[in-house]
């Protein structure tokens, strides 16, 4: 009950601090708000939400938790999943990677775009051992979710990941620690370019996650950050004056 109260209080603070598209003075972020954030999704996502329902009903164990609890606490709400779909549809990133522990729901929203049939998506689950990955994968549609059983921070993944010379979109999932992000960023920031985007799916998972988010937005090369309560997005556009945005969503 206390956690629920704190989340409601946190959301109220976020909402009061936020603005809508009408309070924006950045043409780039206004376009993002108008054409992506606040635009309706026309696609049918029933299959993906059915997958979520199966996971919520699952009794599969995941070490100290269950697939059901993991899905309930760490998987993005449908509105964020639809936002991912619209974002990929609008910006058309060609090189996408996912980092961190996830159950495939977000991947399925990404892959629901017709343009993704032509471009590879690499999903690395660096916190999952083989057994945990197999249990989660059993509840996903393999035609949509494409997983690589690799550890992002070991050399085992390099053969496939090194083939990508640049990164258009990087998605960092909920439980990823700050050290995990900084290790990735230090090693691969040279592959990020002026049109790259990095999405954090749960910047409010813990207080430490939110502190880490604030530190990331202060990086000199991050020219725009967009906070959407649970989700945070950073951009590196050299033509953009450095600004931080809190948008109501």
What would you note in describing this structure?
The protein is of the alpha/beta class and 249 residues long. The protein has one domain (2-43, 76-246): Rossmann fold, CATH 3.40.50. Helix content is 41%, strand content 17%. The chain contains 10 helices and 10 strands. The protein has helices at residues 2-17, 27-37, 46-57, 67-74, 78-91, 105-111, 130-137, 158-161, 178-188, 207-217, and strands spanning 61-62, 65-66, 96-99, 121-124, 147-148, 167-172, 192-200, 224-228, 231-235, 243-246. The strands form 2 sheets. Strands 5-4-3-6-7-9-8-10 form an 8-stranded mixed beta sheet. The protein has a two-stranded antiparallel ribbon with strand order 1-2. The relative contact order is 0.14. Mean pLDDT is 77; it is low at 122-159.
Set out the fold topology.
Blueprint: H1 2-17, H2 27-37, H3 46-57, E1 61-62, E2 65-66, H4 67-74, H5 78-91, E3 96-99, H6 105-111, E4 121-124, H7 130-137, E5 147-148, H8 158-161, E6 167-172, H9 178-188, E7 192-200, H10 207-217, E8 224-228, E9 231-235, E10 243-246
Parallel strand pairs: 3-4, 3-6, 4-5, 6-7, 8-10
Antiparallel strand pairs: 1-2, 7-9, 8-9
Helix pairs in contact: 2-5, 3-4, 5-6
């Amino acid at each position: 009950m206390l956690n629920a109260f704190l989340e409601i209080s946190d959301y109220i603070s976020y909402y009061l601090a936020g603005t809508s598209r009408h309070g924006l003075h950045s043409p780039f972020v206004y376009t993002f708000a108008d054409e992506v954030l606040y635009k309706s999704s026309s696609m049918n996502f029933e299959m993906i939400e059915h997958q979520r329902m199966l996971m919520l009903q699952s009794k599969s164990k995941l070490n100290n938790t269950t697939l059901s609890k993991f899905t309930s606490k760490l998987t993005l709400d449908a509105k964020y999943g639809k936002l991912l779909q619209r974002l990929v549809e609008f910006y058309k990133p060609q090189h996408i990677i996912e980092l961190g522990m996830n159950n495939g729901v977000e991947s399925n929203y990404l892959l629901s775009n017709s343009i993704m049939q032509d471009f590879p998506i690499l999903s690395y689950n660096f916190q999952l051992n083989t057994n945990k990955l197999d249990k989660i994968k059993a509840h996903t549609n393999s035609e949509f979710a494409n997983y690589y059983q690799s550890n992002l921070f070991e050399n085992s993944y390099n053969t496939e990941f090194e083939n990508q010379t640049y990164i258009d979109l990087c998605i960092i999932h909920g439980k990823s620690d700050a050290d995990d992000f900084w290790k990735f960023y230090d090693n691969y920031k040279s592959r990020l370019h002026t049109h790259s985007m990095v999405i954090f799916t749960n910047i409010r998972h813990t207080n430490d996650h939110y502190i880490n988010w604030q530190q990331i937005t202060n990086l000199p090369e991050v020219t725009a950050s967009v906070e959407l309560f649970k989700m945070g997005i950073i951009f590196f556009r050299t033509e953009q004056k450095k600004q931080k945005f809190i948008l109501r969503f």
